[in-house]
Amino acid sequence: MTEKTIVHLLRHGEVHNPDGILYGRLPGYRLSEDGVLMAKAAAKWFGDRDVTALFSSPMQRALETAAPLAEAFDLPVTVDDRLIEAENHFEGLTFGAGAGSLRRPEHWRHLVNPFRPSWGEPYRDLAARMRAAVIRAREAGRGHEAVCVSHQLPVWILRLHAEHRRLWHHPNKRECALASVTSLTFEGSRLVEVAYSEPAAGLAKGPSVAGA
To answer: Buried b / exposed e across 71-100, counting CB within 10 Å, b at 16+?
Structure first.
């Protein structure tokens, strides 16, 4: 019988970001009070599962989301840089028209190609590094389950890649809510199922920040 392994991709909880900055890879962005509750709700959702390996993006918000899981399963958190947020030209800025960065002509050249995309890390590169991180987690949790804490865009691109869908998309179409879980089930090294859950759905008070 082929060995079954599940790799769960957990998006971090809500971030304390009162200024509405596209924070990307900037340091110092922690979970909000609701974000902490979301992380605990996710850990509770995993409570009866067979989790034997735990990985995280190096960003503070991801590590704080991983912490309740580490405590619940008595596991170390292994940092994998490949789980980090995507690179983005607009990092550190507010994005949009009005008072946002789109009013400034120097940024317009970064918007010419939504298929690559021209404003940040190429989708193909993002899919490749996330796939490599998932393979590492699959091997670490072989025959059991592993959790990788990451970010909205990397998780969504990995899912599109796994389901053989096109990688370019509209941000509003992402099915990857705060503290959501995208689960990849493997039989041996063959992906046989992709599932999605929202353990903290009742805690979300508004739309999540795209790419966070």
So the answer is: ebbebebbbbebbbbbebbbbebebeeeee
Whole-prediction pTM value? 0.88
- Type of residue numbered 26: L
**In this structure, how many other beta carbons lie within 10 angstroms of the beta carbon of residue 67?**
19
Residue 211 is predicted with a pLDDT of 41
Q: Does residue 103 carry a pLDDT above 70?
A: no
Mean pLDDT of the chain: 89
Amino acid making up residue 133: A
Is 12 a known active-site residue? yes
Tokens of 102: 């789109």
- Domain positions in the chain are 4-19+31-85+122-203
Which one of 3.10.129.10, 3.40.50.1240, 3.30.70.1520, 3.30.420.340 gives the CATH number of domain 4-19+31-85+122-203?
3.40.50.1240
Catalytic annotation, pick one of 85, 91, 145, 198: 85
Catalytic residue among 12, 89, 151, 161: 12
- pLDDT tens digits, residue range 115-155? 677 668 999 999 999 999 999 999 999 999 999 999 999 99
